[in-house]
Amino acid sequence: MFIPTRRALLGASLAGLAAPRLARASGYPDRPVTLVVPFGPGGGNDVTARTLGQFLERELGQSFVVQNRPGAGGEIGINAVADAKPDGYTFGILNTPGLVTIPIERKPRWSLDSFTFVAGLVDDPGVIAVHPDSGIRTVADLVAAAKKEEGFTIAAQGLGSTSFLSVRLLEQVAGVRLEPVIYPSLPQGVIALGQKEVRGAAANLGEGQTMSEGKPWQVVGVMAEERSSVAPQVPTFREQGYDVTIGSLRGFVGPKGVPPEITARLGAAIEKVFADPEYIALAQRTQQPLRLLRQEAYDRHLQESDRKFRALWAVKPWV
């Protein structure tokens, strides 16, 4: 259904960077803007960058060129944004938890203070799915099964990832022991669940819906404050009595020091895009749960996430 749209988006060409110079908001932008994606083509951040970039080009009259910089769990791409000149021509589509958790678990050359946060864009909440034949239908069912079965395995994708941390948060809230099993990618975790190699699989909702199409995959709950438009029939963990909220919040982020008049112009353009019915429909087709957070709210969300994950690290380090 939406896969052809993704393939078409991935066909967008990359353009070179123009010589750096300080931009003026009155004529901004007067050349292409680079959007760094710290992962390879086809993932959630990449789709967000390419869909949003198309519509920002309409609003601002210049192309937004996606540059994939994968590696080190996103750190290479994040480095590229932190190190860029703050002239308004290099931004990144960066996401939590990595933007917050990497400085907790190791010492990169950047911190949250190294960036200019323009807007939160997409909030893809965490979920846990089980095999439809498992007999597990709710979070309470899953917790009860995990208390009975030693070594209740949950597929996850990397230490410090949303999926891995969602398992640790559920352990903390439910007082249960779970066994995360690390797979290099979500598709491999989906296959493992389908073959009953694991009892469950943790993922982000949108990506999980995409990767599991046509495969055994039953979501027991959404780790968000409210139900998601991607799967409104699925209750939240909180509704089911387990206060677990975590997801991958993708945002529009620049290096520290981008002039406020430029961020204001970009923020206004993003707001217009988010009100465009065509963009809303495209986001729905590509499984992007939109959540617009303006600059101050986005910054505040990241600071709150930093406090939450530092508290989790103090109790149960994930590395």
From TrEMBL:
Superkingdom, taxonomy of origin? Bacteria
Name the InterPro entries on file: BUG, Bug_dom1
Q: Which family is annotated?
A: Belongs to the UPF0065 (bug) family.
According to UniProt, the name of this protein is: Tripartite tricarboxylate transporter substrate binding protein
Name its species.
Roseomonas marmotae
